[in-house]
Amino acid sequence: MINPILVATDICKTYVDANQSVEILHSVNLSVDQGETIAIVGASGSGKSTLLHIISTLDTPTSGQVLFNGQSLLSLSSKQQAKFRNAELGFVYQFHHLLPEFNATENVAMPCLIAGMSKESSQKRAKALLDRVGLSHRLTHKPQQLSGGERQRVAIARAMVNKPKIIMADEPTGNLDKESSEEILGLIQDINKTDNTSFVIVTHDNELAKQMDKTFTLVSGKVVTL
Ligand SMILES: Nc1ncnc2c1ncn2[C@@H]1O[C@H](COP(=O)(O)OP(=O)(O)O)[C@@H](O)[C@H]1O
Ligand SMILES: [Mg+2]
Q: How many domains does the chain have?
């Protein structure tokens, strides 16, 4: 039996301001097995990003529990959570979030440097991953010198660099044309098969969602599994 690596239970998220409280997530349950690929879909504003942030320790639920390998993530200090994210998770966003003043190799190496690896080893690993995503000819290019698809491939290499258990992606193809989106899907599938990395992907892209093992649909703050 495969034990889930990440389990989120009874996740509720309510925003309260002076006049009203708005419940965004209502008792959401979600689990991720090692090597599993999951799509989170739903209308704009349905809470997809909020859910992704909560299971990644980037946001806190109003109530509920998030376990990683059986350990509560919510009971960690913010410093421990940052260390956890650096070691166990990779992140890919709609708008790459690469650092503009650093080249592709330096951007990919950054999470290794943060983890305490030497500059030489970090760069070596970064170059190997850029080669793997088909960018060995773009090692010293800065983000603005790359196409949208190339930037997203750099972002994927960066997400992989510390050998994460799960890559969390928020609309990774949301800003790409069809051809680049297909390349990104191919990469995701290759990484998943070769490294057994799990993926949790928030997406509006049906072509991407239907290739995932499981789809969670958010409707009125609740999850419907299709
Ligand atoms: N800091 C906040 N304060 C109040 N409401 C928020 C805040 N952040 C997000 N929301 C609301 O929560 C809802 C879900 O947002 P989000 O998770 O970004 O949706 P999605 O990613 O599905 O488009 C939206 O209606 C948004 O306006
Ligand atoms: Mg969103």
A: 1
